[in-house]
Design brief:
2 domains; 13 strands; 4-stranded antiparallel β-sheet; Glucose Permease (Domain IIA)
Length: 242
């Protein structure tokens, strides 16, 4: 996988999934967005079959029926694109790393100045549908974003959160590890990071690691994570809910 270009994943998250400050009328953001510059090549993260290629007011959108559902969710989509790869069509198979299209999210033609893609076309989003140049990612129960299987928030459906897909791809391609990211030092941090990368919804840490003892009086290391905590004993992290 080291030769696959997923460099677009290096851009920061500009719209977190479920954030109530975005898509306020819908109860929060139904996708997550990366702040990709206009016409950044967007390559595929999960293998599957193209289920839809659409042009709604929020930009060119490509849906994929996944070969294996992610956390039980069968479809994945790329949103806010300037253009889709013209070789794609509904029914096409896509592997990890295949070109899906080029990022958009622009609401003014001037935002595309100095950029282009081979199709010669740059989609302009309706200003109510995009906050900036960006690429959206969404897990879906239906084949089209906003179509069948659309979920109403609130409550926010965290099963549709695609954030862990990005983290997992970053870890594999950019070789993130506890050795280069001090936030994950320590056994509990490593256990948290591993669970998060492989699709579990994990809350952020609210404390560092500290010494304690369990009910039997054995010395343990503890770290708290909001509604959860972990105890490190005999080389293993054991996770609990409050």
């Amino acid at each position: 996988m080291s030769t696959i270009d997923l460099s677009w994943l290096s851009y920061p998250i500009c719209v977190p999934f479920g954030d109530p400050n975005f898509d306020v009328a819908l109860g929060g953001s139904h996708d997550m967005d990366l702040a990709t510059p206009p016409n950044t090549p967007i390559t595929n993260l999960l293998p599957g079959i193209i289920s839809s290629i659409d042009a709604p007011t929020w930009g060119i959108t490509v849906g994929i029926q996944l070969h294996q559902p992610y956390n039980g969710i069968p479809y994945f989509a790329y949103l806010h694109m300037a253009a889709a790869n013209p070789v794609l069509s509904v029914g096409s198979h896509v592997n990890v790393g295949d070109l899906i299209g080029w990022s958009g999210g622009c609401t003014d033609a001037a935002q595309y100045d100095g950029t282009s893609n081979p199709t010669g076309s740059n989609f302009l989003d309706d200003p109510s549908q995009s906050s900036q140049p960006q690429t959206g990612l969404a897990l879906m129960r239906g084949s089209e974003y906003g179509g069948i299987g659309w979920e109403n928030f609130p409550p926010i459906d965290w099963q549709l959160d695609p954030t862990s897909i990005v983290w997992r791809a970053r870890a594999a391609i950019l070789k993130w590890s506890q050795g280069v990211n001090p936030a994950f030092h320590g056994g509990i941090g490593t256990s948290w990071f591993t669970r998060y990368l492989y699709g579990q919804v994990m809350p952020p840490a609210t404390t560092g690691e500290y010494n304690s003892e369990n009910w039997g009086g054995a010395p343990i290391i503890v770290r708290e994570f909001g509604a959860m905590w972990a105890e490190w004993l005999n080389g293993n992290a054991n996770w609990y809910h409050y």
